[in-house]
Amino acid sequence: MRQLNQGMLALSMSLLLLLILSSVSVFMSRAFVAERRLMLNELEYRVVQAIAEQGVAEAIAQRHLDPSVETLSHQVSHALGDIKYHVNIAPHNSLVGVLQLQASAYMASGTASRISLALAERTVLNPQHLGPKSPLLLGAATSHINGQLQLVLNPGHPISIWSAGALNITGTLHSCALTDYDKQTRRCQGFISQFDTLQHHLASDIKVQDTAFVPDLLHYLFGYRAANLAPLVSYQAQDCSHIQRPGFYHLAGGGHCQLDEITSSREAPVILLLNDMAAIATVPIKFYGLIILVGPAPTLTLAPGSEIIGALVMGKGASSLNGDFTLRYDAGVLCTLGDCQSQIGATPYRLLSILAGSWHDD
């Protein structure tokens, strides 16, 4: 009888131990499955979030190429499964010149990620002005004109020179309408203002000693002070010989810029800002774009027959213009620089930047 009781006790203990082991095994199996599901969910979320971020990057790139892009949708194949994403771009509800970008990515399993951010969209030139309206802006108390200067007016704006100070003309100065300018001979056939050996007549197109002249030319042109222009610069260049494609270039540090080494055209103009550097051309040139000279003594010296097609701006230092050349305002060139028609295709003159603190994801 005692042996029977001992056997039953041993059997009971064995069954109890087996039950405990089975319970532990079931618990560990369920814990492993749950842990595996959690890891898989985390992995899926990270992948989906990365695809949403990819969608954001692609949408910004597409918007830079084509400012009319408002939506973007794609599907990406992954080892975990297919992932779809959709991006919507719309004007911000309260901020002018800002876009609201919302991106979502999701899998068939239900894993999803959403990202929203604010994207500032503006031109390199100050959006309020989109460049000067006159071929020549002078910020100095006195600007010196030596040699022979021709000014061809903007057809929609009757001012050829807008100056904060006086003009000291020791050569000749002629201004004319675009319709009176012969592009073959590069000469005005009729004059609005005429200052030469025959006549000293400065008409209303030459506005000098204007008390309403802008106090800060760089802020007027770009919407930024001099210390904050770096984000607008398209490419770094050691000297003017490296300027071979359109963009905004800022050079400083003394010396001179050889303008005949720069490549520009009506379709690919250049914005050139020279700080404490003289601009010269020893052979006749055609420069398309906007030249800004600032510093203690902004100086421009061009070979006879040269043309600046666009506009010229000179800062508060004692400005000096030398040579026999023409400043011809070109609305098309200024339009390209200001991206006034939101042209399709990559342009260094349209900027997109994410507003700090606007990125949110869930």
Quick overview of this protein structure:
This is Type 4 fimbrial biogenesis protein PilX N-terminal domain-containing protein. The protein is of the alpha/beta class and 362 residues long.
The helix/strand class is: alpha/beta
Give the CA-CA distance, first to last residue.
71 Å
- Give the proportion of residues in helices: 10-25%
> What is the N-to-C order of secondary-structure elements (H for helix, E for strand)?
HEEEEEEEEEEEEEEHEEEEEEEHEE
Could you tell me the radius of gyration in angstroms? Answer: 34 Å
C-alpha geometry: rod-shaped
Q: Biggest β-sheet: count, sense, barrel?
A: 15 strands, mixed
Q: What portion of the residues fall into strands of 2 or more residues?
A: 35-45%
Oligomer: single chain
Give the averaged pLDDT, no decimals: 88
Uncertain runs are: none
What is the overall number of helices? Answer: 3
Number of domains: 2
- Secondary structure tally: strands: 23
